[in-house]
Amino acid sequence: MSAPVIQGWCPGALRPMMSGDGLVVRVRPRGGRLTPGQAKGIAELSARYGNGLIDLSARANVQLRGVSEAGHGALIAGLAALGLIDETAEAEARRNITVTPFWQEGDGVQDVAATLASALAAPDAPQTPGKFGYAIDCGPVPVLQGVSADIRIERARGGLCVRPDSAATGAFATAATVAPRALELARWFLASGGAPAGRGRMAAHLAAGARVPDLFREVPAAPHGPAPAPVPGPAPTGYLVGVEFGQLAAHTLAALSGCGALRVTPWRMLLIEGAEAPPDLPGLIAGPHNPLLRVSACTGAPGCPQAHVATRALARALGQSLPAGLGLHVSGCAKGCAHPGKATLTLVGRPGSTVDLIRDGATTDAPSACGLDPAGLTLSSLIEIDDAP
Ligand code: SF4
């Protein structure tokens, strides 16, 4: 089995990543929100300089795929005109912020997001690893506990709490002190050896025995368990729509831009501000019972150079009739980009364009069946293998 390649950094707009279908250009919407003009502009730029496909990422970003190296400069100029480009690649890499999409006018969430983004833009802001990020989860109800982040900003004691990920306590903060506190914690993470060789995450650092400064021990975290991921449907500030496998076509994004501002969520869904019903557009998932909501599939072949098989057509064919209670993950290789956790049925591409089946496991777990031909697979055949003693 060939081992997946670990890149160790996240692509940005100024520092894109080459993939099998061209450059992947990741755009980080400010405050997790795209105005109608920005969404329309991204759709036009995707169609002009990319292959017309746009990913929604697990960090609430949007990725334009299939961009040529020759077109990258013009694309960046277009994105800059939309207000979506940072001063430098370093500043862009630092601005790794996920914002609760359920903020409401006057609750201060967007102010916190703007203040933190401004602090991270300073040239002397801590240059944390590419995957290191911040979650702003101080909306009406916390919803980001299950979303990857290293520094969490939540509500506590009538104010805010800046909490290291996985810690039971954090530092009390106000709107004025929240950004300095967050950067102080990031500086401590680096100074205390959290990122040897430029890589590292907060939870692993604490698990290895690092002790946070006393300042971050003063406020207990709010007592809440992990929030389940939201499902498509009406939300207090609009309508939440999913997209198949977290990817939408440029023309779909252009049509959505006509419905209102879009909040990009870390669950690969978009919240259409102010909408009371979903638009009727191909590829949108408008309700909670669509079985494709329980199906994950990465880019696969030919878009990803590490993929051994095409993933999405297989996932769509098998997933359309997935019985309630089952989850399906189709991964082009063992890296498992689309779904790092377990699924009832996991198919992993192997050299020779075959797949292995893993039951109730993740892509790196031991398979129940190996060397299956994707062309001959049906859901019932998979479940029969799955049920075999
Ligand atoms: S899991 Fe999929 S997208 Fe990730 S590296 Fe493997 S083939 Fe590529």
TrEMBL record:
<protein>
    <submittedName>
        <fullName>Precorrin-3B synthase</fullName>
        <ecNumber>1.14.13.83</ecNumber>
    </submittedName>
</protein>
<keyword id="KW-0411">Iron-sulfur</keyword>
<dbReference type="GO" id="GO:0043818">
    <property type="term" value="F:precorrin-3B synthase activity"/>
</dbReference>
<keyword id="KW-0004">4Fe-4S</keyword>
<keyword id="KW-0408">Iron</keyword>
<dbReference type="InterPro" id="IPR036136">
    <property type="entry name" value="Nit/Sulf_reduc_fer-like_dom_sf"/>
</dbReference>
<dbReference type="InterPro" id="IPR045854">
    <property type="entry name" value="NO2/SO3_Rdtase_4Fe4S_sf"/>
</dbReference>
<dbReference type="InterPro" id="IPR012798">
    <property type="entry name" value="Cbl_synth_CobG-like"/>
</dbReference>
<keyword id="KW-0560">Oxidoreductase</keyword>
<feature type="domain" description="Nitrite/Sulfite reductase ferredoxin-like">
    <location>
        <begin position="16"/>
        <end position="81"/>
    </location>
</feature>
<dbReference type="InterPro" id="IPR005117">
    <property type="entry name" value="NiRdtase/SiRdtase_haem-b_fer"/>
</dbReference>
<keyword id="KW-0479">Metal-binding</keyword>
<dbReference type="InterPro" id="IPR051329">
    <property type="entry name" value="NIR_SIR_4Fe-4S"/>
</dbReference>
<keyword id="KW-0349">Heme</keyword>
<dbReference type="Pfam" id="PF03460">
    <property type="entry name" value="NIR_SIR_ferr"/>
</dbReference>
